Each structure stands twice: as C-alpha cells, then as structure tokens.
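Bug: token stream looks shifted between consecutive jobs. Job 1:
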Amino acid sequence: MLLRIFLTPQYRPDSSCAHQAIPYGFQVDTNYRCNTRKGLSAAKKAGGSILATFCRQNPSMRTLRHVILILILGAFALPLSYGAAALVLGLIPAPHRGPLPEHDRIPVYLISNGWHVWLALPLDQQAGRPGGETWREWLGQAPNPPGPETAAASYVAFGWGDRDFYLATRRPADLRPDLAIAALLGRGPAAMHVMHIPEPDRASGNSGQNRVRRLDVDMLQYHALAAYIRAGFDATPQGDPQPIAGAGFARNDAFYEAVGRYSPIRTCNEWIGAGLRAASLPAGWWTPFPFGLMNRS
C-alpha cells in the first residue's frame, strides 16, 4: 500500500520545497519533488514504501503574506470599529442638566448641514466674560462689507475645523482627498468659521436647507459655553480675535485663527460636543458625526 502526504503552497517546487523527517517510522524519500505531477507519478511507481513529503514555505514569504493579510483586515476593521464606536458613544448621553428655574433662559442653536455642525449664540450676549463685551463688540459689526445678510443678523454661528480643509471645502462636492487626508493626520492648524445670521427658524426646526436644534440654557450654562468658544480662538496678546485675510464664503462670514488641531478623534463636530458637555448640555459621550449632537430631545 502506498501513502503519500502532500502540502501544496503556491511556490515553485524547485526553489521553495524542503523535505522534513517524519517520526514514527515514516520513510522519507528525498528523490521526489513537491507539488508536481512528476512527483505523483514517481510515487505511484515506487510501490511498497510509505512516503511522506512535505513542502515548507519560505519563512520570509510567509511573513509577508501574514503582513499583507493583517493590513487588508485592518483596512476593513478600523473604519468599522470607528463607526461602531461613534454610533454607540454618540447615542449614549453624557451627564447634563436642565436650566435652573431661577435663571433667565437664553436660546442657542445647533445648525447642521448634514456633515458639519455650527453653534449659534446671540450676537448681543457676552462673549465669554460676564459683564464684558458682547460678541458683536468683540468680533465687530460684520466680517465683510455689510449686506442684506448681515443687516438682520441677531446671532453668530461658530464652527471649528482644519484650516486648509475648511477654507477649500464649502460644500461636500468641494471635497479634496489630499486635504481630507492631511486633516485626518493633524498636519495643519485649525480655523474658526464665524457667520452672522438671523435667528434660526424655531417653528420648523430648519433654517434653509439646514437642520436646527434649539437649546434653552440658563446663564451659568451660557457663560460656560461662551467661554469655551472664546478659548477656541487663537487671540492676540491683547485678547483680540485674528481674522484670516480674504477668507470667507459670503458677505456674512469670515474665518479666524484657532487653537488645536483636527484629528479623527477631535473632529469639528466633537469640538462642538465637548463644548456642550462642558456646559452640562445634552450631547453624546463622543460626537465625531452630527447625529450625536442633533438627535437629542
């Protein structure tokens, strides 16, 4: 009876096969090559002997295959893990409280275009310092030459993000992969986007094509929120905001130098979420996407 055991990796037989000794009385015949039809025919003609021929892969090639497999699995696992973490932590509410009954309430708004969120505060409320100047006084009447958009402005909306990506990406259609990758790697400084706007439409929950969420906050929550936003500006030694010359999408908006760097962990929306959590306002534990901010009662 003839018994032959083959392992057949995808390598050329004359350069990547090696024969190994087999215990328990198996006879190893080194005259036959692995993984070839000639080896099979020769084994059949041998008769009366038990042959055990094993092919051993080249160690360096085997390591390379493992590395490539890990990279392929990682390319799928990392985005899935990131999305799962964002979904779970975005839906779990962080500690928060309602407005104190003895305080006046101030309406603030979250405005989302579906992929980015701005936080809108009243223009004539204090800019982060109780008893100090208002946002209108600190930022100025309008970032660019006044027009119809700024005449009715009573709110100022703030958004934070990577400077180069922000300035070049007004809409999702403007997305450039090279800028997106650079932003994810945290290679550039941040910028603050500031828009002078009318009070968002409270009745419909929408402002134009954007989705709106209203938050009624007390004075303590408001000052915590305003102080957080003001600290996001990269101000001069005198405490003044630094506008980026010539940057803006319309006559009612402008960009300012900001502190920090964008990353997959510290996204533009997570920057808003951190501010809400600092003011004890409803938000998810981690909010890299808008749903962790907008899907709240």
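Job 2, same session, no restart:
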Amino acid sequence: MAFRFTARAVAAEVDVDGETQVGVAEEDEGFFLLFTRAVGGPSPQGGAPVPDTYAVMTPDACTAYGCVREVALTDSLLTVTLGPECLDDLELEDATIEAVLDVPTESVEELRGVLTQVLTSGRAESRPRLIGSRAERSAGSGLPVRRGFMDRSEDQILADELAALGAVGAGGGRLVRMVAHVMRKNVHEIELLVPLPFAETVQRVSGVLGRAGRVLESVPVRPGEDATVRIVAGGGVGGLNPVVVTTRVRKAGEDSSEIRLRAAAKEGLIRQRAGEKTAVRLAARLSAATGAEKAEE
C-alpha cells in the first residue's frame, strides 16, 4: 500500500547558512514531506552534531535521517520509498508515499533539481536510487536554485517571515516555512488619487510606510513616473502576523498621482483578516499624509 496525497505547493531553497531544503505539501496546513541537507557541525541548540546525511521531515517535527531508498519523479507524480526502520520516527504507516503534483511545470523542475542535490549529499550508503531519465540526467548536478532578495515573491517573503518567528523551536523555522506556502492568503487592495506631483507623493508614501514597518524594496520602475515601495508590517493579534505591503505610485498628471496599495498576510485556522485590516489602516494614514481620496471602483 502507498500513502497518496495531492501536493499543491513546492518549496525549494538555500538559506544564508548553506542549508538546502525542498519539499511538497498539501493545502490548508495538511500533510507535507520535507527534505533538508544541513551544514555539518553541532546542532543550533548545542546538542549532538548534525548527521552526515540528509533529513526527512513530516508534520509535528517528525524527523529521520538517510532513510530514502528510492525516488521516482515524473511531471505529475513524486514517489518516495522509505526504509521501514524510519516509519515510527516519521509517524507513517506506509513506506511508499505518492505525491500527485498539482503545481506549475517550473515548480516541478525546481523540485527535480534541488531534491537531487539534497538526496545525493552525505554518506554514499544513504543515497537513494533515482528513477526516471530526467532525474538520472540531473544526478550530481541539479538545477540552479533561484535566489535573490529583490526577486522574492510575496508568498516567499511571508513564508520567510513566518519561518523566522517559528525558529524559536528546534527545526520550527523549516516546518513553518513549508506549511506557510500552502496556507490561505488574505489580500486587500485599495486605490487612491493624490492631488500632489509624483516626486512629492513618493516621498510622503515612503515616509508613511517607513514608519509602519520594515522596508524591503524601494524601486523606481520608470524614474519620474512609476515607483514601488514594499514593507513588512505587523498585523493580527499583537501584531505578530507578518503582512507584506506593496505600494505602487504612478504619475497621473503634472500635479496628481495614483497609489495602489496591496496588503497580503497568511491566514491560519483563526481568520484575522490581517491583510485587509492593514490595507485599510495604511490607506487612512496615506490619505492623511497626502490628501488622497479613494478612487472610484
């Protein structure tokens, strides 16, 4: 028998410490399968050294090391066969896991490359058999991992911010980042009309947003006509839910500008509508600072 689930998210990345991680997950905080290759040495909590092989993780921080026997990956299905000795550690009943991939083609390619990098690391005796001509051709090399701060998507920023909050526990950051990719997202957009020239509007918007959160990006799309400012603000109960706020300012006329404010936050089991509430709050502040009026829908 095999345990089968539908994966609607793929996460693959290398963090600043050199750890590689890749995984697939259901939506709405369901089952996930995460593979990590950690940098050797003592554990972050000062315990035993990190084993010289990859780790496999399932929900509730269940972890086993070097136990994958076989991996087959097609464009629509990931099949992982585990050694029976690790099933108790991972709280699984079946040694074979099948993930039906309901994700874009580029996500499958990224999964293919990074998964190969992780599973071919460490001790040779722990490396699984890779089935499928495309997977075999990628063995030992993998596909490049897309990195770069300025290119991070809204979802990736939210996942990273939530992972930072979850990093207080052993392995918590990795687990939260994985789950965050499939959590529901609360998004709200508001458009404002500003009776000020473009440059002055950008200056005032930057000031308001800079006081409201941590600035991630301030990018002139078209100098003198179009600019984007992005921050991470705190929302939800106690301001602990990260909210990515992206504000685009465009020149409408010689003495007028347009603002499009977008706020997005992940939603857990308890709906906080942090994205919507943050957008409304910051729109009010921007209106007070610029004299803006809400655009007609």
